[in-house]
Write a structure and sequence with these properties.
Shape: elongated
Strand order of the largest sheet: 1-2
Strand content: under 5%
Helix content: over 70%
Number of strands: 2
Largest sheet: 2 strands, parallel
Oligomer: single chain
Length: 257
Amino acid sequence: MTRYFHAALNRMALFTALVAAGVIYFNAEFMQIATANIWLNGVIIGASLFGIGLCFIQIFQLLPEYKWLHGYTHGNRMVALPPRLLRPVAQLLSSHPRRITADALDSVTNMIIVRFEDARESVRYITNTLIFLGLLGTFWGLILTVGGFAELIGGLNFSDETVLQSMQIGISKPLSGMTTAFTSSLLGLAASLIVNFLSLQVQIAQNAIFNELIDFLSARTKISTADEVVKILPKINLATHELTKSVQALENHISDR
C-alpha cells in the first residue's frame, strides 16, 4: 500500500511540475491564447487551478486514513481514529477487535465505496464544467464568426472600388470569433485532461487503501458454518413455539371478554 500511495503522490507532483514548466516555457504562446477572450479563458484557467488544488487536498486528506490503517494492521491499537473515510471501520474494529461477520464486512465495504465516490464527485463536476466551458466558447466563437461575416457581407458595396480594403478591415471581427472558439476549446479540453489525470492518481491512492483494508478485514471475517446454523435452529424453533403460545393465550383472553 505504501508503494502505491506514494507513487500516486509523486506522479501528481511530477505531472503538475511538467505542466507548470510547459506553461513557463511557452509563456508567449500561452498568454496569446489566454488573452484571446480574457473573460471566458480566465474562468477556464481559474476552474482548472481550483481542480488541481482540490486533487492535492484530497490526496493529502488520505494521509490520516493511511496512517491509521498502516498502524492498525501492524499491531498498533493506540493510533488515533481516522477523521472521515475509514472512521466507521475503526469504530467497528474497536468494538469487535477479534472477528467480524460477513454481513458486517459487506456493509462496511459498501459504506467505504460510497464515501470514496462522494469524495470524487466534486472533481468530476469540475472536469465536466471545464468541458462545458470549452464547448461554450466554441459555440460563442462560431456565433460571433457567423454574425461577423453576415454583417461584413451585408455592409459591402461591391460597386465601390475600395471593397477589398473594406473586406480586409471588416474581416477582423469574424476572425476574432474563430480565435475565441479555438482557444476556449483548447484550454477547456487541456484543463479537463490535466484535472482528470490528477483525479485518477487520487483514485489509485484510494484503491490502494481500500484493497489493503479489504485484505485485512477478510482475514478477520467470521463465516457461519452449517454446524453453527444447526445449533441455532432448536433455539429458533423454541422461540417460535413460545411466541405462538403467547399469541394464542392473548387471543383466548380477548375472546373471553
